[in-house]
Amino acid sequence: MFKPNVTVACLVHAEGQLLVVEETINGIATWNQPAGHLEANETLIEAAERELFEETGIRATPQALLRVHQWIAPDSTPFLRFLFALDLPSRLATTPQDAEIDRCWWLTPQQILQADNLRSPLVAESVRIWQSGERYPLALLQAFQWPFCEGAPLGDA
To answer: Are 32 and 123 in contact (CB under 8 A)?
Structure first.
């Protein structure tokens, strides 16, 4: 049975810089947006909030949906990736809670786009989408007859 991995990612912006997390994969330091898998019994927004906190120590709620990507990784793993935007008034200090995150960096969009250590091509694509100015309301994501929020928009869960 086909079951793609459902993931969430947060593109976090403050003071002209974007937040990336660094993790070591196969001995190589790689950069990604704070991101991870949707877990059972949580909404997409809850997953984004949880992943943001686990990987950066920042507690915040995404403000907009940027894009939904359907992607097949080089190892043939299928993904549905929900990309969210969060604009903060200032760069916050980070304290990763997840032991797999080595550190966090506030970088310019250009630094990310020129990097050769991105976790996947979706990291740079996410920056380009953010730069385009496209934003969609979180109300597009509805939890229908969801046991924890009975039809409320995911942002209200």
So the answer is: yes
5-156 belongs to which homologous superfamily? Nucleoside Triphosphate Pyrophosphohydrolase (3.90.79.10)
The pTM score is: 0.90
Q: What is the DSSP letter of 48?
A: H
Identify whether the C-beta of residue 107 lies closer than 8 Å to the C-beta of residue 116.
no
The closest of 93, 94, 70 to 81, measured between CA atoms, is 70
* Domain residue extents for the chain: 5-156
Tell the residue number behind the tokens 């200090």, with chain if given: 93
Assign residue 76 a region (left: φ > 0; alpha: ψ between -120 and 50; beta: otherwise).
left
Q: In terms of DSSP bridges, do strands 78-87 and 5-14 run parallel, antiparallel, or are they unpaired? A: parallel
Run of H or E including 18: strand 17-25
Cβ-count burial 6-27 (b if 16+ within 10 Å, e if not): ebbbbbbbeeebbbbbbbeeee
| pLDDT per residue as tens digits for the range 20-35 | 999 999 999 999 999 9
71 - beta bridge partners?
79
